[in-house]
Design brief:
The protein has 15 helices and 16 strands. It is of the alpha+beta class and 435 residues long. The chain has an eight-stranded mixed beta sheet, with helices on both faces. Strands 13-12-14-15-16 form a five-stranded mixed beta sheet, sandwiched between helices. The longest helix is centred in the first third of the chain and has 20 residues, at 17-36.
């Protein structure tokens, strides 16, 4: 009987140990920057009530219409694997009363998201977002600070060749006038629009601007621009944002076609785009969503945020040759000859690990030659061989695996301290025998 080969689902990736250090790099960069701006971590469930995303993301978006993974169990409501992080974070802030703890509330998260899309470079069906959310601040300074945080993360990651695009999509008042203008414009093209956009024409014509169909995209190029329909308050907000960004030395380009793919956005929207990862060039997107908290049942509260696609960030860093933290390797491998020596290496490894070192010893019954090959394979900086004679005289030779130099160390309770001195000297380029 032939074996069935089970492979990972289409559009997903495994993070194997050899790639983990890249993920640790971007995770640490994101978290450290967020903390320096006063953000605290929040974690929400992998799945939420489907209604949360229909109400927040919007029932005319591609995400809700085509891309959500929705499940149900007997006697229960429908649940959806979260396609993005903001809605769940907003729900958690409201449900747990965090707005009673003072404003602005600043939270960050790192989470898996799920969308049924055609997999390609930088776009997966399970992907990971780092997101930041600020609630309670309505002014343009908050928008600028959010953009600054996103830029700080990209700068700290060493990402180059990115461009910041900003736009304003207005408040409900000016959006209503703009929506009417779009309806009038797109009504002339009903014979050419795709079926999905024909539905959007009545419900939410702004979504047509975000359609991926080449025909609809070409038609949308001649559509009215939102900036021509902004009310006085939205104009002032957008103008003030530009002044603050200029003061912060943040370069930007106004792109009136940015609407973002989710319905909850209002006023400011922005994207950081790179040309180094192909067509999926947006590595960070965000904006303001002042009506979302109220839409989800909370008190009317201004809010804004952004999300960074971690796979896209890593891909960009790889393509640009950015630096990642070093992949951790073994500090010392303790080779043994015989049962008594094996027991000794176990206790020495424990002591070294308690002192913060990465220490390994033989666990599979290898020959001495095979143990040394393994030590070399795992990149051990040092090795030590312990046999019967070493146990008798209480000494063994420590070997520098890079230079081949050796030093005799006493196998006592102070072994880990002696090794610590030698490793520090080695790491800082001092003489191997100095200590």
């Amino acid at each position: 009987m032939s074996q069935v080969s089970i492979k990972r689902p289409k559009g997903t990736q495994d993070m194997i140990p050899s790639a983990a250090y890249k993920w640790h790099t971007v995770e640490n960069i994101c978290k450290d920057a967020a903390k320096s701006f006063g953000y605290k971590e929040i974690r929400t469930p992998t799945f939420e009530d489907t209604g949360l995303f229909v109400r927040s993301v919007g029932d005319t978006t591609d995400v809700v219409q085509k891309e959500m993974y929705t499940v149900s169990s007997s006697g229960e409501a429908q649940f959806t694997l979260k396609p993005e992080g903001t809605a769940g974070a907003m729900r958690a802030v409201i449900e747990n009363g965090l707005l009673n703890e003072g404003i602005p509330q600043k939270v960050y998260y790192m989470t898996s998201c799920f969308r049924h899309e055609k997999p390609q470079a930088g776009r997966l069906r399970e992907f990971h977002q780092f997101g930041c959310e600020m609630l309670g601040a309505s002014g343009p300074a908050a928008d600028a600070d959010m953009i600054l945080l996103a830029k700080t993360i990209l700068d700290n990651a060493g990402v180059k060749n990115t461009e910041l695009f900003i736009n304003s999509i207005g408040c409900p008042e000016c959006r209503a006038k703009y929506t009417q203008a779009l309806k009038e414009y797109f009504s002339s093209y009903t014979d050419e629009l795709c079926g999905t956009c024909l539905t959007r024409l009545e419900k939410n014509p702004m979504r047509i601007l975000d359609c991926k169909s080449p025909i609809c995209s070409e038609i949308a190029k001649g559509a009215p621009e939102i900036l021509d329909y902004l009310c006085d308050d939205c104009k002032e907000h957008f103008t003030s944002l530009q002044r603050i960004l200029a003061e912060l030395d943040i370069e930007f380009t106004i792109n009136p076609r940015i609407v973002r793919g989710l319905d909850y956005y209002t006023k400011t929207v922005f994207e950081f785009v790179t040309t180094d990862i192909g067509a999926q060039g947006t590595i960070c997107g965000g904006g303001r969503y002042d009506g979302l908290v109220g839409e989800l049942g909370g008190a009317d509260t201004p809010a804004l945020g952004f999300a960074i696609g971690l796979e896209r960030l890593i891909l960009t860093m790889e393509n640009q040759g950015s630096e990642f933290i070093e992949e951790p390797t073994c500090d010392i491998y303790l080779a043994s000859i015989g049962d008594a020596a094996l027991v000794k290496t176990a206790s020495l490894a424990r002591d070294l690990r308690n002192c913060g070192f990465n220490a390994e010893y033989d666990l599979v019954g290898r020959s001495l030659k095979a143990q040394m090959k393994y030590a070399d394979k795992i990149g051990a900086k040092f090795s030590i061989v312990i046999g019967d004679d070493d146990l008798k005289n209480g000494y063994a030779k420590l070997k520098n695996m890079e230079t081949g130099e050796k030093e005799e160390l006493r196998l006592s309770e102070r072994f880990s301290e002696h090794f610590s001195d030698i490793l520090v000297a080695y790491m800082f380029g001092d003489s191997f025998y100095e200590n």
